[in-house]
Every structure is written in structure tokens, then in C-alpha cells.
Amino acid sequence: MTVSSTTSKVSYTATSSQTVFAYTFKIFANADLKVYVNSVLKTLTTDYTVSGAGVTSGGNVTFGTGLTASDIVVIERVITLTQGTDYVENDPFPADTHEEALDRLTFIGHQHQDTLDRSIKFATTVTDAGDVEIAATAAIRANKLFAFDASGDLDVTQEIGVFKGNWAASTAYVVRDLIKDTSNNNIYICITAHTSTGAQPISSNTDVAKWTLIVDAATAASSSTAAAASATAAATSATNAATSETNAASSATTATNKAAAASTSETNAASSASSASTSASSASTDLASFQGQYKSGATDPYSSKDAGDLWYDTANSVLKVWTGSAWNAPVTDAETAETNAGTSATNAAASATSASGSASTATTQASNASTSASNAATSETNAASSASSASTAKTAAEAAQAAAELAADNFDDTYLGAKASDPTVDNDGDALTSGDMYFNTGTDRMRVYSGSAWADVAIDSATVVSKTSATGSGVLPASTTANRDGSPSAGYIRFNTTDTSFEGYDGSAWGAIGGGATGGGADTVFWNNGQTVTTSYSVPANTNSMSAGPTITINSSVVITIPSSSHWTIV
Description:
By secondary structure, this protein is of the alpha+beta class.
């Protein structure tokens, strides 16, 4: 038959109790089908039977038990990769047998194409796919990720590098090493291999460009401190504002009281004026007493004092009263007016005039009291404004503190600190997330959470020199002369497979590395070689080899091969 269709798979969504499902392509035997229900492979005869083998249009798969509604059924042709047709010389050559063999090959091609269509691969336009083979063993691949190395070749690696603990000077760091800056608790990852110098903090170290900051603990701590200080200042401002408000209210009360006292003084002064005329008869008798109780001067004019004596201090323009133990100053105008009005009875000639003056003074005091009340109201308004400003400042400080605390909490939820075993939740008791890290104090290793399991943070195997064991050998890079580094630096070392020798770069050229001794100067003078060849050896083509003689012994069965384009000289 001809093969005009590439269909080799069908799928169905079952109805309730459905048992029969058709396939629409040819098979050669019942076992050429694989049948899946909800992605589970079923067993021929045990779970289902097949009809229509050898029929071009296909046949049916019949289940012994009806399926559940919405079950997904997939029927796929999978032919064994064998060839069962045997052509015998001079036997008949039947077309059906030959055509069936061709059909089988075509079906196998469909089968391979279906596998290729479901694989991950480079686009046709990609011309530099590189090395896509993975040579790492299962033990090396365990808990690693697929990645591409610096050359674009496929490799297995870890997302983050090895935690090296606290930063230290004179330490060789490689790419992806993680360290902690103990001066501010910041976490850095190495982006350029180097030997550390200088001191912390890393932010001001000469090697800062060789690190990348991944956890900024210093900024979080500074923000938290600043927020706490702002909150304290705001609380102080609020307290001060409340005190100002209280003082303003007290001032307003005092002003009101003074206004009432001034009004009372005015009334008393008027009464004193009326009494002045009646008191005129006793004026001369009491004048001497008044002169003994009221004096003026720049200094204390009294040699002996009684409680109630008055002194007008001309140096300070203040009226003072003797309390019995000290001069009390100042005496308010209203109180002075009242005292003068009572005393004016002793001075008949001046009492009327003094009483009138006292009334005028009392009126002025009332006006002053009114002004004080107005000022107190203004103070109260200002205090309320200060309280509002303090409340605003406190709100801003609380917001800053909340932001700082959130940043610190986020850091605390990602780096969980030092622990003796793998944690199952973060430091807040919440579920772990991909990228969470902690330091295992039992193994002294940094560990990272992949989203489902903890794993040691590992180095990139493509960028470091490994060793065979703790007491074994270092595994140096080995390749041809053509694969030398394009821009080498002094100190590079490798094994050259073209020359079959170790070589190093001195800063200007590559040179072989071997034994020998130096002479009296800087030049190499003595080169040593053995006297017995114990292993067969082939001199490379187009190469001249030399050994120091005069005698070189070649052991039996050992063969030295010298191509026609090469020479071996014994000197």
C-alpha cells in the first residue's frame, strides 16, 4: 500500500462507561499499540484488547471495564525497531511482502519524527550550538541545574556559589563565592576571581568592582535606626505641643483673673476718693507714720523695717514691699493703687488727687488685662498648630519606621541565619520560598532552597580546577596548541596535547615546563634526562628530538618510532 498519512497517534475524552475507541492507522500486530488512560500506560489483554491488526484503515481498542467521564485516552503506534523480512536468492519476490517492509520503515520514521517534534532543540538558524553533551556523572549532576557556561556550551551548575564565611584579606576568591562583610553585615557575591587585599567595608575596598551586593543589610539597619529616632523626636514634639497648649490655657485663665482684679481695683479706688475727704482730719497725725513706711532711693533707705513698709527703687523704677523677711518686687499697679488709696487717708492734702490717679491706673490695668487675654488666646491657637505639626511629624516617622521594619523582615525571611539543620519554615513561621538561604553550623556550608528541597551552594565546575582526591592530583586543563587562551596572562599553566608536555605563559610567550637547574646567572644551563628508555615512544612528525649521551639504553621490546620528517640526536 502507499502511506499518504503521517498520523500515528489519536486521543479521546471518554464519556461515562465508554469502552470502545478507534485508531485510524495501520498496525502489523496487536502489540504495536501503546494505550494510556490519564497518562497511565495500560496492559494489553489485561486492560484492553485490539482488533484490526493488518487493516489499512485501522481498528478498535476495547476496554474490559467502562471508563469514567472525562478520562483522557491516548492510543499510539510504537513499532519495535527490527526488520523481519528475509529475501532468499532466486526465491519469488512478492510485491506485498516488499511493500509491507517499506511500510514498516515508513512507520518507524513517523515514530522517530514524533519523538523529535516533542524534544527541545536549537532552531535551524542557530549555527553555533556548541557542545551539547553532558559528561557529568549522576553523582555530580545531583541537585544541579542545566545551564550554559562561558563558551555557550551545555553544563550542569548551581544558581548560587559557595559561601566562604566572613571576608578576609589575602584570600583567593573565585567567581560565585559568597562572603559576609562583618563591618555592616552585607552579603556579596564574587564576579571576578582575585586574591583579596585592603580592609572592610567592601564598598570602599579597592576590589569593590569584583563583587556584587546581593543583601544590603547596612541600609536596612540604618533606615530602622533613623525611623526609631524620628519616632522619638515626634513623640517629644507631641509632648512639647501638649505642654504649650496647657500653658496657653493657663495664661488665658490668668489674664481673665487679672482683668477681674483690675475692675475690682477700679471700684475700690472710687470708694477711696470718697473716703479721702473724711480722712483729712487725721492727715497731720498720720503723715509722720506714712513717711516712715514709704521711702524712695537707689538703695534700701530703711535702717529698720516693719512688715508692710514700702520702697520705690529709683534704680530699677520698681515699687517693693517688705514681707517681714525680704523685699517683694514687683508690686502690680492695681495692688499699688489699692494700697495708696488706703494710705491716702493719712495724707489729706493729696488723697483726692491720689484717688483720682488710682482710678486712672486701674482703668489702664483693665486694658492691659484685656490685651493679656487676647495674647493668651493667640498662644492657645499657636499651641494647637504646634500640636498638629507634631502629629504630622509623628505620622511620617511611624511610616518610615514601618518601611524600615518591612525591609528588615524581608531580609530576615530570605537569609534565615545560622541553623543546625534544614529549616521547614522561614523565621516568621511562613512557608519557604525559592532562593531562601541559611548557614548549616553542622557542616559549615551555605545551603539554598530550590523550591522543593535544600541543597549545598556549589561552585561552577566549568571555571575551577578540580582534584582527584584530598591527597591526589590537581586536574589541569588539557588541549591542543590551537586551543590556547587568546589573551593569556603571566602565570597561566596547562597541558599541551599537541606537544605532549606541560607549558606555562611567562607574560610574553608560552614555554615548556620541565626539570633542570640554573647556572651562576639567570639563564637555565643544565637540563637533565634519563639514560634508559623504558617505554615505547614516537617522535612527533616534523619535530627534532635531542637526548644527552653519550649512551642511551633502549630496553628490549621498547620501540622508538622516528618519522621521515623528524630526527633524534644523541649528543
